[in-house]
Design a protein that fits this description.
This protein has helices spanning about 25-55, 65-95, 105-130, 140-160, 165-170, 175. Helix content is about 70%, strand content about 0%. Mean pLDDT is about 90; it is low at about 1-15. It is elongated and about 55 Å long. The protein is an all-alpha fold and about 180 residues long. The termini are close together.
C-alpha cells in the first residue's frame, strides 16, 4: 500500500475519448479490482435472490428448514457487515486518495449507511425469529428487505463500475494497480 502515489497520473486530465485502447494485459490489470469485487457481490446477489424469492412467494425453498433459512439470512447480514467493514478500513481509504467516489460522506459510503439502516432491522428481525421471540412471517421479511433492496443493488453495481478498467485507468498507473490491497 505504501507504493500508492498521492497524486493522479497525467492521464487524469485527458478525456476518456483521448485515452488509448487498453491491451488485454492492461485491461486485466486495471479491471482486477472490479473482477474481484464482482465475485463477492455476485454471492450477495445470489443469497439476496434466494431470500427475497422465498419472502415474495411466502415459503422457504424446498428442503430447507426454518432454522436453515433464518441462519442463511443471518449469515448474509454478517457477511455484508464484514465486507463493508473491510472496504471501509482497508480498500476505500487507498482508493479515496485519488477517487472522489470513495471519500467519506460521498456516494459509496453514503450507500453503505443507507444499506445498513435497513440491514440492521432485517438482522434484528431474523435474530428475534432465531431466538423464538418472534415467528417468521414472510410478508414482514419482504417488507424489511424492500426497505434497503434498491440501494443495495444500486451499490453493488456502482462499486464494481467505479472499479472497472476504464475508470481506474483515469486515476492509477499499472504499477500502482499492482500495489492495491485487493
Amino acid at each position: 500500500m505504501a507504493n500508492v502515489q498521492e497524486t493522479a497520473p497525467a492521464s487524469v486530465a485527458t478525456t476518456p475519448q483521448s485515452l488509448p485502447k487498453l491491451s488485454p494485459s492492461e485491461f486485466r490489470i486495471y479491471n482486477s479490482m472490479a473482477d474481484h469485487m464482482d465475485l463477492f457481490h455476485n454471492r450477495f446477489r445470489q443469497t439476496w435472490n434466494a431470500l427475497y424469492t422465498a419472502a415474495s412467494r411466502g415459503q422457504r425453498p424446498e428442503g430447507m428448514s426454518m432454522k436453515q433459512f433464518v441462519n442463511g439470512g443471518l449469515q448474509f447480514c454478517e457477511h455484508l457487515h464484514l465486507h463493508h467493514t473491510i472496504e471501509e478500513l482497508h480498500i476505500f481509504p487507498v482508493l479515496a486518495r485519488k477517487m472522489p467516489a470513495f471519500r467519506k460522506e460521498l456516494e459509496l459510503l453514503t450507500q453503505h449507511k443507507q444499506i445498513h439502516a435497513g440491514l440492521d432491522q432485517f438482522q434484528a428481525y431474523l435474530e428475534a425469529c432465531a431466538s423464538g421471540e418472534r415467528e417468521l412471517r414472510m410478508t414482514e421479511l419482504k417488507a424489511l428487505m424492500d426497505r434497503f433492496g434498491t440501494v443495495l443493488w444500486t451499490h453493488l453495481d456502482d462499486e464494481v463500475k467505479q472499479l472497472g478498467a476504464e475508470n481506474m485507468r483515469k486515476y492509477w498507473t499499472p504499477a500502482e494497480m499492482r500495489t492495491m490491497p485487493m
